[in-house]
């Protein structure tokens, strides 16, 4: 494998000093996932990773990026010593961005960043060498880490950029220097740090501050804040491409058909008909995919190949992953599990409930004659002073009428639980752990079960418990937020 960083190049990028000569083929911040040949970056977060440098070198790290020499290591150990590790990681990211000729796409938005990033990866990898962020590495260390890992010969790079307080996106966008800035949508999320969605829109629009000259902004057409986003694009000197249902959008969504296995989409592209599908149900996937196809056009890619590759995409785990859980292998009795336990805000909650409502349970296969749609919903966090009203508003969503039972987790979700009619009201608990002993009572063969909540609510524990009720079938289908 060719070297990603040499000791000489890394020292030049960071201004650090190295007492040894080394070559790294990757960059890691975690000894648990570190691969031999990686440069280990000793960041200080909840723990000081300097405590793990010896372990990283024992596991085969080529070198470690440190601000001090850890105990137990000689001075000639393969270390790159810098004043500040995070600043040095940013410098590596900046140098990696400067040495590549890749076309860079920056992705942000209140909902759908990771799924859109993965759609872009799927489309671009059929037409060149693609580098994209792992998981949801989109914060003050995730963006520079993604850039530092980028091979110089990449044709495309997809950089996800997130935030949870004002002033985060601009510096990260200027580090990434995208040629294309894509905003998925603006919705109520992280309202603890913002007055309203206009404030969120202003922060998301800061991604355009980093656009390269002649850059392109791909923006949602159907929002109250669309004029704000378009105005910021004009200030940045960017060309704007709008997507959505608005007649003014050159990438216009005309019709969406949800089937149990896919989303079939009719759209227009500059007035010309466009037909594509996504291999999982969800209206939000149709919209995100349209933005991806706009990006493919902006990059001059083959639109037919791009539309076909969208049809092969399946979403990341934990963001709507669908699994068939066998309860009785002899009788082939099973229920379907939708794992959406990674994140939650009002917009993504609505999308997940619509997905559940569009799916069809199976009757006459379980103890209960009718298959049911069941939701297990955890708190949506970081919504600020309106959080209780936003949780209560879920009770008014049209999709709830087709959901048989709703179990709730967390103090905020109690407001929803109390607003539900008694026929739909399942269990409520302060924490997910309190429901683990009862989860086997929640489901029956033929049911479809959605688990959705903010990551720190740990409703993923209930996903794991539901999986343990049976054995996932080989024909697992995946979907996402």
UniProtKB/TrEMBL annotation:
Q: Which SUPFAM superfamilies match?
A: MurD-like peptide ligases, catalytic domain (SSF53623), MurD-like peptide ligases, peptide-binding domain (SSF53244), MurE/MurF N-terminal domain (SSF63418)
Domain of life (superkingdom): Bacteria
Short name of any one Pfam family annotated for the protein: Mur_ligase_C
This protein's pathway reads:
Cell wall biogenesis; peptidoglycan biosynthesis
A GO cellular component entry from the record? cytoplasm
InterPro entries cross-referenced by the UniProt entry: Mur-like_cat_sf, Mur_ligase_C, Mur_ligase_C_dom_sf, Mur_ligase_cen, MurCDEF_CellWall_CoF430Synth, MurE/MurF_N, UDP-N-AcMur_synth
Which is a GO BP term held by this UniProt record?
A: peptidoglycan biosynthetic process
Residues at which ATP binds: 109-115
Q: Which UniProt keywords apply?
A: ATP-binding, Cell cycle, Cell division, Cell shape, Cell wall biogenesis/degradation, Cytoplasm, Ligase, Nucleotide-binding, Peptidoglycan synthesis
Q: Which Gene3D superfamilies match?
A: Mur ligase, C-terminal domain, Mur-like, catalytic domain, MurE/MurF, N-terminal domain
Q: Which family does it belong to?
A: Belongs to the MurCDEF family. MurF subfamily.
Write down the HAMAP family for this protein, in alphabetical order.
MurF
By what name is this protein known?
UDP-N-acetylmuramoyl-tripeptide--D-alanyl-D-alanine ligase
Q: Which organism is it from?
A: Cereibacter changlensis JA139
Q: What is the lineage of its organism?
A: Bacteria, Pseudomonadati, Pseudomonadota, Alphaproteobacteria, Rhodobacterales
């Amino acid at each position: 494998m060719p070297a990603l960083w040499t000791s000489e190049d890394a020292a030049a990028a960071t201004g650090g000093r190295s007492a040894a000569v080394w070559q790294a083929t990757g960059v890691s911040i975690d000894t648990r996932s570190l691969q031999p040949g990686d440069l280990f970056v000793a960041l200080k977060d909840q723990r000081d990773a300097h405590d793990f440098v010896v372990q990283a070198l024992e596991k085969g790290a080529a070198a470690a990026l440190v601000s001090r020499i850890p105990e137990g290591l000689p001075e000639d150990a393969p270390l790159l010593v810098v004043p500040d590790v995070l600043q040095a990681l940013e410098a590596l990211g900046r140098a990696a961005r400067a040495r590549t000729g890749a076309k860079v796409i920056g992705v942000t938005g209140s909902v759908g960043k990771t799924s859109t990033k993965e759609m872009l990866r799927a489309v671009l990898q059929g037409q060149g060498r693609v580098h994209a962020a792992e998981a949801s590495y989109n914060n003050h260390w995730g963006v520079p880490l993604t850039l530092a890992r980028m091979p110089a010969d990449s044709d495309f790079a997809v950089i996800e950029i997130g935030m949870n307080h004002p002033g985060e996106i601009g510096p990260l966008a200027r580090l990434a220097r995208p040629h294309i800035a894509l905003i998925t949508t603006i919705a109520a999320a992280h309202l603890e740090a913002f007055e309203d969605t206009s404030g969120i829109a202003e922060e998301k629009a800061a991604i355009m501050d980093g656009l390269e000259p002649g850059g392109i902004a791909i923006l949602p057409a159907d929002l109250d804040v669309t004029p704000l986003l378009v105005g910021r694009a004009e200030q940045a000197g960017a060309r704007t491409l709008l997507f959505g249902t608005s007649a003014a959008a050159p990438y216009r969504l005309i019709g969406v058909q949800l089937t149990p296995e896919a989303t079939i989409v009719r759209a227009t592209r500059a007035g010309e008909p466009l037909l594509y599908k996504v291999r999982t149900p969800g209206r939000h996937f149709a919209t995100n995919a349209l933005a991806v196809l706009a990006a493919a056009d902006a990059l001059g890619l083959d639109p037919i190949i791009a539309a076909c590759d969208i049809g092969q995409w399946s979403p990341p785990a934990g963001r709507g992953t669908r699994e068939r859980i066998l309860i009785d292998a002899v009788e082939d009795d099973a229920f379907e599990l939708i794992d959406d336990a990674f994140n939650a805000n009002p917009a993504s909650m609505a999308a997940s409930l619509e997905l559940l409502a569009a799916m069809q349970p199976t009757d006459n296969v379980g103890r209960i004659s009718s298959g049911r749609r069941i939701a297990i919903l955890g708190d949506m966090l970081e919504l600020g002073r309106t959080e209780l009203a936003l949780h209560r508003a879920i009770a008014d969503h049209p999709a709830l009428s087709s959901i048989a039972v709703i179990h709730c987790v967390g103090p905020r979700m109690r407001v929803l639980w109390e607003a539900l009619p008694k026929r739909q009201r399942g269990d409520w608990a302060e924490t997910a752990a309190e429901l683990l002993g009862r989860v086997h009572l929640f489901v029956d063969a033929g049911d479809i079960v959605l688990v959705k909540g903010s990551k720190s609510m740990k409703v993923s524990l209930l996903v794991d418990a539901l999986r343990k009720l049976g054995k996932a079938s080989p024909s697992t289908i995946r979907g996402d937020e």
